[in-house]
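Supplementary Note 3. Input sequence used for the single-chain structure prediction.
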Amino acid sequence: MTEVLPKFRSLGGAPRVVEGVVLVAVTVAGAFWALGLQYHLPVALFNEQYLGLFMGLGLAGAFIVVKPHPTAAHDSVPWYDWIAAAAALAVGLYIAILYPSLSYTLASLAWDRLVPATIALVLVLEATRRIAGWALMWIALACVLYAKFGWLLPGPLYAKGSSWGRIAVYLYLDSSGILGIPLGVTASIVVAYIFFGQALTAVRGDAFLTGFAMSVMGRYRGGAAKMAVVSSSLYGTVSGSAVANVVVDGAITIPMMKRSGYPPHLAAAIEAVSSNGGQIMPPVMGAAAFLIAEYLAIPYGQVALAAALPAVLYYLALFVQIDLEAAKLGLTGLPRADLPRLRDVMRVGWVFLVPLGVLLYTLMISNWEAGSAGMLAVGTTLLVGCLQKATRPSWRGIVEAVEGTGRTMLDLIAITTLAGIVIGAFQLSGLTSKLPILLTSVAGGNVVLLLILTAAVSILLGMSLPTTVVYVTLAVLIGPALTQLGIDPLAAHLFLFYFGMLSLITPPDCLATYAAAAIAKADFWKTGWAGMRLGIVAYIVPFIFAFHPALIGHGTLGEILITTATASIGVVLLGIGCAGYLVRPLSWPRRGWAWLAAALLMMPPLAWLPATVADLSGLVLGVALVMWERRARTLSAAAGSIASSPTALP
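The predicted structure, written as discrete structure tokens, is reproduced below.
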């Protein structure tokens, strides 16, 4: 994380006061809109008015908080950043105040629109450069240039091209541009869940999650690693950020795993993969999951339920592998004296189960709006935290939670506004309607080939783009092509989400792995390859639910139960093959045996191989492998006992 953290300033005096006011304003504005309080105002507000204000506050905060380059002064804000922050507020307030009248003449290219539009685009590009690096900015610029000069390209990539003024105003004011779905979801839903995670920290919920994981898993073999998995998955349910999980949990779990005997690269890989799973672990997944609900016009709870079984399989494979790695290395659990008692942990920490229960009920059962459910969870967290002295938040802690939410939102605001530029440029150029046809023709109508191409593109894009931008881009460009070829719409969007997320643990550019390897002081490449092996299920399961939607809960009860059982057994066998150990080390042929059994159990129904035949064949092969290895170990132990007996013949 040493490359990321220096970008933030550490201010004092009047600049610190201004910084605090802006960060609090971002959070308060988001909470206001997430709660739906705008509907109780005496005047009607356009959604674009709020998004303009939110964008202006976020960009202003970015120029105050983030340095233009790592070597810049960290304790002061130069004059040009104050001007940029003021300009950001101005272009945001322009929309917030004047949008009702602007909405009637959106096609107008008058100078009073061109000037703020141009300033807004420049500020978005520069804010994103500071926060996410040059790559994302250049990609957005390339999309804008395509909207302008698409007429120079041949064949299906040809676009008529638009004037600079038309491009700027469209991207600035149209709901398909900056003010589109990505920023809208971030500003009205994601902010509530970022706030929820900060509120849990304010009432020491992070300590409860770590203590709970230690008390439940610490005494088993490889207990430190299992504790890391439980802790990271639990923290991931409220943060949805892989890097945040690594930083919060890894500082505790990685040294603990190393002390228990795990090699540094393996400890780092376990933490990175565990943390990355937070993006796919309900009830609170990564920001892109909320976008899925918005694009498909379905309740977020439906998305979370669909993602539940694949997430469980992801962590099951991880658990199996770290348990077998512990057996291979001869590791034992932590001493009971070093572990907190579950009774003591729950005596203080039971209150944190209340907001999680509230969140599950409102999202999954009552089908509340996701933003309102998140804000209710925030209020419940702070309320139950006040019930005990040990968890009672201080006023300073609450203020830090509010500011911390705003600080986290700066990254998301810059990235999602830039995503709006990318989508708007594609819409303006007509690429969104052409590319699905082009991809379908390249794949020759072969859905498997299209999925493989899509997975490769997702991971490649993810090496330079955040998961949210990868998902948004591919959802607009490739999502229609996948559904046209018969894939369930929710399965198609989850497929894109999964492979966009996998870039965080896929070398060479994988931020979660970088962060974990830095904490562990481990070799990056060894960590990266180990992480891919541990997270192997995430590379396979999306292909399964794309063809077999029962894995995401779309099917009869019988289909879902059978799919769950066979997929779980298949994942266990897959983990055995990847770890290369069962009750003793496995040779490569026996590892291939395990992989074949896993493939038969996990594969979707095929025309030439009925599902029942595949499942039974995989089950027989798996049972045979286990029995073979157990018998071989028994015979080996008996032979060793005879050889070591003092009465053995010479």
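Residues 1-5 have pLDDT under 50 and may be disordered. The first helix runs from residue 13 to 34.
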